[in-house]
Design brief:
This protein is α/β, with parallel strands linked by helices and about 220 residues long. The chain has helices at about 10-25, 35-45, 50-55, 200-210; strands spanning about 55-60, 60-65, 80-90, 90-95, 105-110, 110-115, 125-135, 135-145, 145-155, 160, 175-180, 185-190. The protein has a 5-stranded parallel beta sheet, with no helix packed on it. It has a 5-stranded parallel beta sheet with strand order 4-6-8-12-10, with no helix packed on it. Strand 1 and strand 2 form a beta hairpin. Helix 1 (about 10-25) packs antiparallel against helix 2 (about 35-45), helix 1 crosses helix 4 (about 200-210) and helix 2 packs across helix 4 (about 200-210). The longest helix has 16 residues, at about 10-25. The relative contact order is 0.17. The model has no long low-confidence stretch (mean pLDDT about 85).
């Protein structure tokens, strides 16, 4: 019988997520090739989540992590409590380093809106986003590093959610999206940030596969 004090095993999903964070860090010049290789090799060798997490220390500042979600969080006092994005017979677009309010209402009536929050910053804890599209459409793109809950309904329309990779860290910010599409459409997805070098990102993932296979 295993000891109740034994460390939890590392899931393959968590190991794969760490590999992708390391690849992203290399693509953004936060790790050298030598540092990348050392950490990728260790990622397939360590046995506990704590050991795996240690591989994400930023070499330029060991008190920070390379983990994506920590780069999406800002000081709670800086984040507005409430906000709105509204389009009536028109449209709106939001992208870049936006501070997302704790409670955000997104409404379109015979119009459309696009919120690309891949570079946005969130308060710690839970952010509530309410989306209503009436005879219009809303596209919402969230970063990969946040946890996501979606509760939506559609009437003569569509309310679509592309889950993407699961985020297992309970400390990552949670974005809860709710709302309805009425003769309109709501499209929710998660996407990764753009990297300085897509080539380096793909090369790092290929290197990880070689190391995993023992090459």
């Amino acid at each position: 019988m295993p000891s109740p004090y034994a460390p939890l095993p590392i899931t393959e999903a968590r190991r794969d997520r760490v590999v992708r964070v390391l690849a992203a860090a290399f693509a953004n010049d936060l790790l050298t090739m030598e540092q990348l290789d050392g950490r990728l090799a260790a990622a397939y060798r360590v046995h506990t989540p704590a050991e795996l997490q240690q591989l994400l220390a930023d070499p330029a500042d060991p008190s920070r992590s390379l983990d994506d979600w920590q780069r999406y969080v800002t000081t709670e006092a800086l984040v507005p409590e409430r906000g709105a994005a509204v389009a009536v017979a028109g449209g709106f677009g939001v992208k870049g380093g936006w501070l997302v309010p704790r409670q955000l209402k997104v409404w379109t009536v015979a119009g459309g809106g696009e919120l690309d929050l891949r570079e946005a910053r969130f308060a710690p804890g839970t952010t509530e986003i309410e989306v209503v599209a009436f005879m219009g459409g809303v596209e919402l793109v969230l970063p990969e590093g946040v946890r996501l809950e979606v509760v939506g309904a559609a009437f003569l329309g569509g309310f679509e959610y592309k889950a993407g990779a699961a985020v297992e860290d309970p400390d990552a910010p949670l974005v809860r999206v709710s709302g309805a599409a009425i003769m309109g459409g709501v499209d929710i997805s998660r996407g990764r940030r753009e990297y300085k070098s897509e080539r380096q990102y793909l090369a790092a993932l290929a290197r990880a596969t070689e190391i995993q296979r023992g090459g």
